[in-house]
Predict the structure.
Amino acid sequence: IQHGGINMAIVSSREDLKQYCLRRLGYPVVEINVDDEQLEDRLDDAIQYLTEYHFDGVEPQYLKHQVTQTDIDNGYLDMDQVDTRVVSVVRAFQFGGGQNNSGSLFSVRYQMALNDFYGLRNPVSIMNYDITKRHMAMLEDILTPEKHVRFNRVTNRLYLDMNWDEEINVGEYLMFEAYVAIDPETFKEFYKDHVLKRYATAKIKHQWGTNLSKFEGLQLPGGVQFNGREIASEAQQEIDKVEEEIQLKYELPPDFCVG
């Protein structure tokens, strides 16, 4: 694209990002001694880091899952069966006919509606209605509290602190508030992020310096020597700087991602 007489490259794919990083390092004027597989690995590292620490690397979503007998027997959910992109789970909601479910005969919500505790059959003010709703929500939180969730990305198992045999039935639905990783292949804007471009470039530069350091001291014709250690050292400083910037400016508060 021509912009003010200058060719402006658009980064909209993984390959575009790779070529952009190489050009920032001097290619094709300078030969970048990094294998294509190493380039792919360093891009994976950069994307994974942004997914874990950059607020634009994840997005909140509500996911649903229909309970099976296997889930009840295990006492946990295999999140691979729900969504493989889940990074953390914040909370869980239950929908169905379990003994303590909010839709059952003994729930606070059902009993209040049955007995018309709202007083909606009589002329009442919105203030009384609001107070009653808040009181009902408090009672429901006490009598039928939300299930505590425990999730680990290594095992990819979601544990709900409840008696699975008594509190949930096969066929009921569980809904989760979770953070899922952005898929760059679906949302191409991810590749345009300036932090990702800087971080990926620094990671590739570090790989380049590491490769050249294997030939440290080898003298080429004309007295030229490889200086891989210096390149790797500069790259590490750039990596540290970008990571600090991400953690200070772009990382979500830890409490938002506890699951």
Remarks:
- The two ends are 45 Å apart (CA to CA).
- Confidence is low (pLDDT under 50) at residues 1-8, 97-103.
- The chain is about 40% helix and 15% strand.
- The CA atoms of residues 66 and 178 lie 16 Å apart.
